[in-house]
Amino acid sequence: MPFLFHSHLSVAVFSFPIVFIMTDVIGEIYGKQMARFFVLAGFISTALFILYSLLSFAVPWSKDGLWAKDAYNQIFGISVRFSIASLVAYAVGEYQDVFTFFFFRETWGTKYFWIRSNLSNVWSQLLDSVLFNAIAFIGVYSWPVLASITLTWWLYKVAMGLAYTPLSYLGLRILREQTNANSSY
Which helix (H) or strand (E) segment is 142 a member of? Predict the structure, then answer.
């Protein structure tokens, strides 16, 4: 990927901000409890992936598949560390996003969704970026490279969150229409 500050980017910096925006949209329509439930569902999904990845290391291999064992272990061995980093970063970042989003909502009311969403995402994406990169890359990269990667990923995720703001309004509209349609029965 292209780089800023001489750091390469993961494709996740373009897609992951959508998760934070989705949490805000769900929270806006269905409330704080449902937003927390949404975060818990994502946490459980990632935890199950980690569990299945670990299980795959423990089961015996068929003779027919031994040719792929080393490559499989290398790829999924790394992804277990990344998954753990994702799990921790996701849980802390997302729960902090819910907390911060609803703090702003209680302070400003239901106006200014885009400001509330983006401000909560700036903070939560920082936590997510710092935690993920620390867990995934300490011991892999030097501290200056790690700091550069973290800053770059955070700035890109914030930029993507801002760019995706119109999608959040689309999500709000769709959920409101669905909620109104379901309540008219």
Answer: none
Closest CA to 43 of 100, 76, 90, 85: 90
pLDDT tens, position by position, 118-170: 999 999 999 999 999 999 999 999 999 899 999 998 999 899 889 999 999 99
pLDDT for 50:
82
pLDDT-flagged residues of the chain (< 50): 1-3
What local confidence, expressed as pLDDT, does residue 2 receive?
44
Instruction: Tell me the whole-structure pTM to 2 decimals.
Output: 0.81
Establish if 77 belongs to a structural domain: yes
Could you tell me if 55 and 159 are in contact, meaning their C-beta atoms sit under 8 angstroms apart? no
Burial of 142 (0-12, 13-18, 19+ CB in 10 A): exposed
CATH number at residue 144: 1.10.1760
DSSP strands (E only) in 45-171 = none
Domain of 79?
Answer: 11-183
* Distance separating the N- and C-terminal Cα atoms of the chain: 49
> Is the CB of residue 42 less than 8 Å from the CB of residue 89?
no
Cβ atoms of residues 146 and 136 within 8 Å: no
Query: How many residues are recorded in the chain?
Result: 185
